[in-house]
C-alpha cells in the first residue's frame, strides 16, 4: 500500500482507488432486487436479478407503466408497485415472514440472504424450504433466535451494511487472471480514509494486455467518473461481475460476449490512480468480495485446463457512475 501525503495535508491514494465515495444502501439494493423479481415474473425484466438499478430495470418499469396507463416516468412509485399486484407488496419489515408466504418483502429477504452467502435457492419472492434453511443458517451464525421467522431483529441484522456473518458461496466459479505477474495490493487492505481496498491490484506496465477472467457478457465499457477511470465490467453467471479499472484503452464493448482470455483493453492509469496498474474486482450481487479464492493460477493464455465460467446475461451499465462500496 502506497500513500502520498500532500503538502496541504490531503491524503491521496497512489496506485489505488479513492474509496471515499457514495455508498449504495443495502436496503435499496434489496428493494431493487424485489422490483426486478416482480418485473421478471410478468416478462418485463429479461436479465439477472442483481439489485442494481440499470437500464433493463428502468425499461421494465416503463413498460409496466405504459401497459397499465400510468404516468411513464420509469420510477417505481406507489401506483406502479400497486400495478405489480401481490408481487409489489408488502414492504420489507412490515410483517414477520414465514414459510409459504410470497411477495415483495420475501424477494428482498432472499436477496439479503444471498448477498451474505446464505443461498436461498433462488430469488423469486416465494418463501419455500430453501429460503427457510438459508434463514435458519443465518440466524444461527448471527446469534439470533433460530426460529425460521424473518422478523424485525433478523431483517435489521441482514440490512446492516457491515458486520455480521457472511459465507463464501461454494460453487464451480473460478476466474483466470486478467493480467500476468504477482499481485500488489490485496483485497481489504486498509486505507487511511478508513475504507478498505475493494479489489486486487496487478502492478504491471502501461499497455499490458488485459484479458477477461471468464465467460460472460461485457455490460459496461467506457469511462467511469467514480474513480475507476476507463472501466470494463463483465457479468458472469450466478450474480458475479468482474471489474477491470484504470485502463489506458478499452477494446471491449457493451454487449460483447467474452471468454477467458478475450482482450478487454490495456493497462493504464486513468481515474483515481497515479501509476499504471490493473485494479481487478470481483463482485457478487454487487458486493465486492476477495477475488483471490476464485483465481486460477494463470491467465487464460497460460492455462492448462479448460475451466470456464459460463455466460449469464447482461444488465448494461448502471456502471458509468458507480462508486466503490466499502468492503464488508
Ligand atoms: Zn486497486
Radius of gyration: 20 Å
Largest sheet: 7 strands, antiparallel
Spans of at least 5 consecutive residues with low confidence: 1-26, 302-328
CATH domain class of the largest domain: Mainly Alpha
Bound molecules: zinc ion
Under CATH, the homologous superfamily of the largest domain reads PGBD-like superfamily/PGBD
Q: How would you name the oligomeric state of the polypeptide chains in this document?
A: single chain
Examine the coordinates and then state which fold CATH places here, giving the name of the CATH topology of the largest domain.
Muramoyl-pentapeptide Carboxypeptidase, domain 1
How would you characterize this protein structure?
By secondary structure, this protein is of the alpha+beta class. It folds into two domains: 26-159, Orthogonal Bundle (Muramoyl-pentapeptide Carboxypeptidase, domain 1), CATH 1.10.101; 172-302, Glucose Permease (Domain IIA) (Distorted Sandwich), CATH 2.70.70.10. The chain is built from six helices and 14 strands. The protein has helices at 26-41, 55-67, 78-83, 104-115, 129-142, 152-159, and strands at residues 2-5, 11-14, 175-177, 200-202, 209-211, 216-224, 229-235, 240-247, 249-250, 257-258, 263-266, 278-284, 287-289, 295-299. Strands 4, 6, 7, 8, 10, 12 and 13 form a seven-stranded antiparallel sheet that branches. The chain has a three-stranded antiparallel sheet with strand order 5-11-9, with no helix packed on it. Strand 7 (229-235) and strand 8 form a beta hairpin. Residues 1-26 and 302-328 have low confidence and may be disordered. Zinc ion binds at residues 16-17, 185, 197, 199, 201, 279.
